[in-house]
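Protocol step 4 of 6: structure prediction from sequence.
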Amino acid sequence: MFITFEGGEGSGKTTIIERIATHFKNSYKVIISREPGGSFIAESIRDLVLDPKHIGMAYQTEALLYAASRAQHLDDILIPSMDTHDLVLCDRYIDSSFAYQGLARGLGLEYIEKINDYALQHLPLKTFYIDVSPEVGLSRIKDRQKFDRLDQEKMSFHHLVRQAYLTIADVYKDRIIVVDGHQSIDDISKQIINDIERQLHDSK
């Protein structure tokens, strides 16, 4: 079961994914990965695309680098893990490209679909979008020691990203579940765990 997690900056995805993995690891074989990155070459692309020094990066270049990292990640980690693990949990996937580059950057969903054709052949069973206002999310990460290139975008951009995610969630309503990210981490984790347990039960 391939499950992805989406959200803006400071949505708590990483902590929530770790809690979910901990909950299921005694009963199922679980692996966690992330995008951009997840494998050696994909992580190298991550370093390039998120480097704060690269403020002049063209939107098309940004989108193509994410697509390249994703293709490598699929071959190195995700596709093999789907054969060897019960739960494959990924922090971000193609919906990040739809939201950030397709809608917030204005490149269009069709463009993102075209350059991510390989990923579209391997869509997750479910995607949990953790919805939180940019003001709340960015306040949660204000004490970070290091900010990447997207963390440093203007507040208006983060609002565009949030609206983009809500639009995409409506387009893919059969796959994407919107979760209120203003709840406690405990409550969010419990909600998602319950949803995954239902999926596991139904798949038996």
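Step 5 (inspection) to follow. The first strand starts at residue 2 and ends at 7.
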